[in-house]
Write a structure and sequence with these properties.
With about 160 residues, this protein is an alpha/beta fold. The protein has helices at about 30-35, 50-60, 65-70, 80-90, 105-110, 155-160; strands at about 15-20, 25-30, 35-45, 75-80, 100, 115, 125, 130-135, 140-145.
Length: about 160
């Protein structure tokens, strides 16, 4: 399947996360993003160096600025279980706006066409690093990294596109 691209509507599928009451929620991506401007940024793995020290902190630090430019939701997405994503999110006590969501078995990642096979490194199939800007489910920006790079999917890259 070709990777998701500008002009595409994101596919329907489900993701999981723990809400503000610590209750596990499994929700439709369409229900979460319909009629909203949403940043969906994906990382290969929770607690990994580039993801934890660069990618996620950038979106947390720039969240207010992104929201001031009309962004309704900022979602961090990874092929991990929701318990791992919850634990990872808690390592950022300053976070007020980034929602950590799980694609436990990688099904939604496959629908997006953004799988990254890291089996040779013992990590299985993960998500490529990316940042999508969605406007009412339609992709208006698709910044997808090659391999393990971190050159086009930062919060600053999305800010430039807003």
């Amino acid at each position: 399947m070709a990777p998701i691209a500008v002009g595409d509507v994101v596919p329907e599928g489900t993701i999981s996360f723990f809400d503000e009451n610590d209750q596990l929620q499994t929700v439709s991506v369409h229900a979460l993003a319909a009629s909203k401007k949403v940043i969906l940024f994906g990382v290969p793995g929770a607690f990994t160096p580039t993801c934890s020290m660069k990618h996620v902190p950038g979106f947390i630090e720039k969240a207010e600025e992104l929201k001031s430019k009309g962004v309704d939701e900022i979602i961090c997405f990874s092929v991990n279980d929701p318990f791992v994503m919850k634990a990872w999110g808690k390592t950022y006590p300053e976070n007020k706006h980034v929602k950590f969501v799980a694609d436990g078995s990688g099904e939604y990642t496959k629908l997006l066409g953004l799988e990254l096979d890291l089996t040779d490194k013992g990590l299985g199939v993960r998500s490529r690093r990316f940042a999508l800007l969605l406007d009412n489910l339609k992709v208006t920006v698709a910044n997808v990294e090659s391999g393990g790079e971190f050159t086009v999917s930062s919060a600053d890259d999305i800010l430039k596109a807003l």
